């Protein structure tokens, strides 16, 4: 792994395809970054599948309620509607564009409904700008994101094996 400028604000995701590193942006979305770090540190994202992956658009994951393959109640037909045990997060829409490698929060119709689910853009998705909270950018492993199995829902999906804040990883 390359030298990390800010380990406390770097997310390291071991996927079934390889390691993906995201530079988190607390300057853009402090509440969302704090929430993601809390979930990562609790192990909530470990084993969670990429349940919605649209070619040319994005790979969505983070359904910690029903998308965690490590939980006995895992039900692949119910991924995509759950969140964490915590309340939803107030929107922190910002001017950062949705481009290749952007990490942004998924939500329902309500602007303040983001919780644990997020997506990584495969390419430019400017139509999402200022309507979804951008909280990070892939800085390593985008080639692995490109390899994630597609589908809505994905049959036999790829998953996040482990998600950790870089500062918590022993050197």
Key terms for this structure?
171 residues; 25% strand; single chain; alpha+beta; nine-stranded antiparallel beta sheet; Cyclophilin
Short description:
The protein is of the alpha+beta class and 171 residues long. Helices cover 11% and strands 25% of the residues.
- Low-confidence stretches at least 5 residues in length (pLDDT < 50)? none
Overall structural domain count: 1
Strand content: 25-35%
**Number of helices in the DSSP assignment:** 2
Strand order, sheet with most strands: 3-9-1-2-8-6-7-5-4
Q: What is the CATH domain class?
A: Mainly Beta
CATH-assigned fold name? Cyclophilin
Task: Give the SSE order as H and E letters.
Answer: EEHEEEEEEHE
Q: Return the average pLDDT rounded to an integer.
A: 91
For the report, how would you describe the main beta sheet? 9 strands, antiparallel
- Cα-based radius of gyration, to the nearest Å: 14 Å
Helix content: 10-25%
Give the class from helix and strand content and strand pairing.
Answer: alpha+beta
CATH architecture group name: Beta Barrel
CATH superfamily grouping = Cyclophilin-like
Tell how many strands the DSSP assignment holds: 9
């Amino acid at each position: 792994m390359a030298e990390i400028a800010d380990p406390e604000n770097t997310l390291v995701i071991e996927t079934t395809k390889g390691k993906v590193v995201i530079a988190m942006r607390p300057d853009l979305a402090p509440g969302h970054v704090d929430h993601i770090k809390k979930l990562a540190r609790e192990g909530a994202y470990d084993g969670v599948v990429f349940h919605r992956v649209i070619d040319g658009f994005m790979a969505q994951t983070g359904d910690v309620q029903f998308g965690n393959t490590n939980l006995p109640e895992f039900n692949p037909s119910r991924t995509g509607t759950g969140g964490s045990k915590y309340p939803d997060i107030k929107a922190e829409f910002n001017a950062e564009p949705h481009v290749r490698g952007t990490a942004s929060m998924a939500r329902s119709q309500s602007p303040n409904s983001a919780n644990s689910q997020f997506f990584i853009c495969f390419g430019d998705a400017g139509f999402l700008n200022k309507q979804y909270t951008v909280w990070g950018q892939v800085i390593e492993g985008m080639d692995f994101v490109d390899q994630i199995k597609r589908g809505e829902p994905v049959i036999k999906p790829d998953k996040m094996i482990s998600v950790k804040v870089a500062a918590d990883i022993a050197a």
